[in-house]
Amino acid sequence: MSSAKQVIVIGAGVIGASTAWHLTKAGAQVTVISESGAGGVATPNSFAWINASWGNPETYFRLRIRAMAEWKRLANDLPGLPLAWCGGLCWDLPADKLEAYAAEHSSWGYGIERVGREQAARIEPNLAVLPDFALYVAQEGVAEPVATAKALLADAERRGARIATGTVDRLALVDGKVTGVVVSGDIIAADEVVIASGAGAPAIAATAGIRLPIETPPGLIVHSRPYKKLLNGLVMADRLHMRQTAEGRIIAGSDFGGGDPGEDPQATARELFEATKAMLRGSEGLELDFHTVGYRPTPVDGFPIVSRSEGVSGVYIAVTHSGITLAPAVGLFATREILDGERDALLRPYALSRFAR
Ligand SMILES: Cc1cc2nc3c(=O)[nH]c(=O)nc-3n(C[C@H](O)[C@H](O)[C@H](O)COP(=O)(O)OP(=O)(O)OC[C@H]3O[C@@H](n4cnc5c(N)ncnc54)[C@H](O)[C@@H]3O)c2cc1C
Q1: Is 169's C-beta closer than 6 angstroms to any atom of ligand 1?
Q2: Of the candidates 99, 123, 167, 210, which lies 20 to 30 Å from 109 by C-alpha distance?
Q3: Which atom of ligand 1 sits closest to the CA of residue 183?
Q4: Of the CATH numbers 3.40.50.300, 3.50.50.60, 3.30.310.250, 3.90.1640.10, which one belongs to the domain with range 6-48+146-213+299-356?
Q5: 48: Cβ below 6 Å to ligand 1?
Q6: For the chain, where are the alpha helices, taking DSSP H only?
Q7: To test the ligand 1 pocket, which listed residue (296, 298, 317, 325) has its Cβ within 8 A of the most ligand atoms?
Q8: Which residues contact residue 203 at a Cβ distance below 8 angstroms, ignoring those fewer than 6 apart?
Q9: Which residue has a Cα nearest atom 12 of ligand 1?
Q10: Measured from the CB, is residue 296 less than 6 Å from ligand 1?
Q11: pLDDT, tens only, 241-266
């Protein structure tokens, strides 16, 4: 890989952090610019389930599975990353659909185990409501999102990256090539600019005439105060997804992507928290601490945009939902494409150009 390419990464969420880390490790001179602190905007509000679970076509499943493997590679390179391969117990579909998911994903090689009531109780002894039939995937896990992004950025900095706070007003553009960014009226030059800016990406890209079709649906997650251990792993029950964080908080959404906050998010949070408590034995002293409403940067077809932009050189786009799952693969593949011109086959469906067709 070339050794001295100057790359600006706009964004310090999990996608920017992973991309900056991989670029720095590969020898690029990286500057991360973000208006948030290290950790990002959507990233701190994430449920942070690492998975290749139901509802996706096989091509996307393959990318997610690869990303799960890349987390393990990253954890070897950067010991201490706050990852837990805690397993996921899932019954958030009607029985026939759950069975169809198990059959399909098992045939793709996903490690799904069919479990009954007794086994579910052994996996999660504190569940007050047990399913007759559920699926257990031991290889699923979580990455505590802010701590992970911060660890990646800190290690990138240790390896020579520069981490700066600032708002990118626009991309600097000369003859169809992005030559840097403009921050508070000053141009900062670079050979390449990576837009890893989540919900802020469309406004930045638009300054170079690039249209990013991204939606930002909201998702509400409740957080308890830290509590004694009640959950071993992820629980995806009907309209209630929950897990216990590394610091002992039970966090829950009506979906892992967070529930609809509704007209009164406070009331929605209270209701969701009561449902969470009712699902857990030994939760009498469990208290709601706060809730978050995050906005998921989601390309309109639901799949990642990880690619260059046709017609404008010097810029690379990395915007996706499921960014916690995908971050290590996005960072690695973006780095290879930016520094070596090699596009990974797993990224083939995820170029921005698909929206032009
Ligand atoms: C409620 C919820 C639940 C989720 N659950 C899961 C899950 O279970 N599993 C999963 O894999 N994913 C999940 N996600 C999705 C995942 O969290 C996101 O895909 C991921 O966090 C996106 O990271 P990011 O780095 O792209 O964006 P962000 O974290 O939003 O970071 C964007 C960065 O860009 C910077 N920026 C933006 N504009 C500018 C500008 N003009 N100048 C300078 N800096 C700028 C911001 O300051 C920030 O640092 C969930 C998301 C939400 C909200």
Answers
A1: no
A2: 123
A3: 42
A4: 3.50.50.60
A5: yes
A6: 14-25, 58-77, 95-107, 117-123, 145-158, 201-206, 265-278, 323-340
A7: 296
A8: none
A9: 322
A10: yes
A11: 999 999 999 999 998 888 899 999 99
Q: Which two tokens stand for residue 135?
A: 């699926």
Nearest to residue 251, comparing CAs of 223, 225, 227? 223
Tokens encoding 128: 């007050």
The pTM of this model reads: 0.98
Q: How far is the C-alpha of 218 from the C-alpha of 261, rounded, in Å?
A: 7
Tell me if 1 sits within 8 A of 341, measured CB to CB.
no
Asked if residue 153 has its Cβ within 6 Å of ligand 1, the reply is: no
- Count of beta carbons in the 10 Å neighbourhood of residue 324: 27
34 lines ligand 1 (CB under 6 A): yes
CATH number among 3.30.9.10, 3.40.190.10, 3.30.460.20, 1.10.10.10, domain 88-138+217-295: 3.30.9.10
Question: Ligand 1 centre and the CA of 106: distance in Å?
Answer: 30
Ligand 1 centroid – CA 147 distance (Å)? 14
